[in-house]
Amino acid sequence: MICFISFYSESCKIKYSLNGATIPIEAKTISVAFFANNTTLGSPSLSQKFTEKLRDVVSTQTNLALMKQNGDLQFEGTISDYNVAPVAIQSTADQAALNRLTVTVNVKYSNKFDITKNFEQSFTRFADFPTSTSLSAQESDLLISINKQLTEDIFNKAFNNW
Q1: Could you tell me which of 20, 91, 103, 111 has the fewest CB atoms within 10 Å of its CB?
Q2: 121: domain range?
């Protein structure tokens, strides 16, 4: 019986973390490349803030060593859309009550131990804000919320099979 248990535990190839993430046992490192801002409207700090948030998420939710490049697991991509549009029209004034800031990120994930886990996908999230305030007054807070949602989606797709 002891031989069976030790054989069974040695044959497992997947490691589980405390947050439920499935990470290959062979993986020791992860790299998150800089996500370039390919939008025309996005703020100059958009790329840096998003990239740092994704790096923070993978480093705090896994025990993988964060590398600048060539990790066992790799994220790369671009910020492809940054858009503000009205979403809630007031019937009495025919003007928007709310605006929506939407950000789309194209992500390529590579897992050198299991290529079936590799993906290229766009992730989109948004946050609404009142038209009575300017985007510049709220942009920082909105992007914190959007980046949190985007990085959770990306992490879940890569490590929780969502």
Answers
A1: 91
A2: 15-159
Is the Cα torsion angle 132, 134, 135, 141 positive or negative in sign? Answer: negative
For residue 124, tell me if it sits in a domain. Answer: yes
Helix/strand/coil for 131: coil
Q: Is residue 148, in this structure, part of any structural domain at all?
A: yes
The total number of structural domains in the chain stands at 1
pLDDT in tens, 66-80: 999 999 999 999 999
Say which residues have a Cβ less than 8 Å from residue 101's Cβ, sequence separation at least 6.
82, 83, 84, 126, 127, 128, 129, 135, 139, 142, 143, 146
* Residue 60 counted as domain residue: yes
